[in-house]
Amino acid sequence: MKKVLVINANPKSNSFCKSLADQYLAAATGRCAIEIIHIGDLDFESSLCEGYDQIQPLEPDLVDFQEKVKWAEHIVIISPVWWGGLPAKFKGLIDRTFLPGFAFKYINDKSIPKQLLEGRTSELIITLDTPTFWYKYVKGNPIYKELKRCILSFSGIKNTSATYFGPIITSTKTQREKWLNQVSKIAKKLK
């Protein structure tokens, strides 16, 4: 069975991202080994206060997150777009956990590091309050570029797809049900 980690990157206790994550979990249960993380449930200092200059001890929730990332073969990131990019708490989670020695390692002062999370895949499910075409083609799709190119690829995780839902703010109950059903279909494709 494939080992799948679902990350709800929206820190709100009740959000459409949480509904999407729970829907994905329900549809994938029994098809794979699956774990879910709701970032709002995690307790940690989100700032990497001294960068890589000083070791900042990881809180228990961050240690658990790293263990789940190492365990996973496929990572599903469900994130809203806030101010064009990632929510601060999710970015803080990446800053604090995708560290040298965990996600990458510089070797012999080479500028291109060794990718330590190779062999994993990911998929992105993105929600936004602007029309998808506007965000992707006028704004330049910054969340995708940051996640795929700057975080996942840098660490060796190959992104396989990105699905966008929006605008959420003006969506109807019928539209949201359609999107939830679409997430179920995505999850049921897991092998």
Automatic annotation (TrEMBL):
Keyword set, alphabetical order: Oxidoreductase
GO cellular component: cytosol
Domain of life, per lineage: Bacteria
GO molecular function: NAD(P)H dehydrogenase (quinone) activity
Residues of the Flavodoxin-like fold domain: 2-182
Keyword Transferase: no
Matching InterPro entries: Flavodoxin_fold, Flavoprotein-like_sf, NAD(P)H_dehydrogenase_qn
Gene3D superfamilies referenced in this protein's UniProt entry, alphabetically: 3.40.50.360
PANTHER family: NAD P H OXIDOREDUCTASE-RELATED, NAD(P)H DEHYDROGENASE [QUINONE] 1 ISOFORM 1
Family designation: Belongs to the NAD(P)H dehydrogenase (quinone) family.
Entry protein name: NAD(P)H dehydrogenase (Quinone)
